[in-house]
Amino acid sequence: MSLAGRTALVTGAGGGLGLAIADALLAAGANIIVCDVHAGRLAAAEDVLHAQGRPDRTLVLAADVTDEGSVATLIRAGVRRFGRLDAVVNNAAVMDRFDPAGACPKALWDAVLAVNLTGPFLVTQAAVLQMQAQQPPGGLVVNVASNASVRGLSAGVAYTAAKHGLLGLTRNTAGSYAESAIHSVALLLGGMDATNIGDAFAGGVNREAMARMLATQPGNRCVPTEHVARYVVFLCGEGMAKSVNGSCVTINDNWPEA
């Protein structure tokens, strides 16, 4: 599938799933805008993407998705470089420490909600305004959701609440902007090995709560990041997003079993 002439933004693309998605979009012919808050990871990602030999179709920028001004600057820079914005992948996310409500510090709640829900809102807000204004109008917003979007014991309270909220953002966007040919889809992902989301555990984890949750979901079948990346490329193809507008697509190898 060729995405030649299309431009896609991937947040949190300094490594892991975000980088895999950006790499796949670039290989399919798209112009890509990638951002992250980690300078070191962003530099490494730039090397990976430039290895495809198309730096003219790659824009790598530092950006903080929790900051409205940073997001606005990111979108403007991408449009200035490539002329339009056809797709956004809200991938940037952080994990909590599996704390339930009684044990979750407010600071952790605020930090997780800021990245995992306010961030996608701010990026979506800026993106849909650009997608409405450009000629021809239209575009796609892909939100990277999770098993935790529909289950109560796949993470702690902060991550679970944020990922549940992401489904609301997806469905509201899908319903509000279809007349402008702007569509929105959520991907409900299971576990993946090649991501950076475990960074949160460096400061410790609520092992008792995590053990209680894992007991309800034995085993752990991981989804390859490249499979998710290929699905994003498919959604970005001509006319595909309209048919699945508002969908919440499960990609989790049926773990936990449906």
Question: In words, what does this structure look like?
Answer:
It is a single chain. The protein is an alpha/beta fold. It has a single domain, classed as NAD(P)-binding Rossmann-like Domain (Rossmann fold, 3-Layer(aba) Sandwich), CATH 3.40.50.720. It is 44% helix and 15% strand. It has helices at 16-27, 39-50, 68-82, 106-133, 157-177, 207-216, 225-235, 240-243, and strands at residues 7-10, 31-36, 58-62, 87-90, 139-146, 182-189, 248-251. The chain is globular, with a radius of gyration of 17 Å.
Task: Report how far the terminal alpha carbons are from each other.
Answer: 31 Å
For the largest sheet, list the strands in their spatial order: 3-2-1-4-5-6-7
CATH architecture: 3-Layer(aba) Sandwich
Number of helices: 8
Strand content: 15-25%
Low-confidence stretches: none
Mean pLDDT over the full residue set: 94
Main sheet record: 7 strands, parallel
Structurally, the number of domains stands at 1
The global form is globular
> What is the CATH topology?
Rossmann fold
CA-based gyration radius: 17 Å
- Tell me the helix content: 40-55%
- Give the topology string: H per helix, E per strand: EHEHEHEHEHEHHHE
Structural class: alpha/beta
CATH hierarchy class name: Alpha Beta
Give me the CATH superfamily: NAD(P)-binding Rossmann-like Domain
Number of separate strands: 7
InterPro entries: NAD(P)-bd_dom_sf, Sc_DH/Rdtase_CS, SDR_fam
GO molecular function: oxidoreductase activity
Protein name: Levodione reductase
Pfam family, one: adh_short
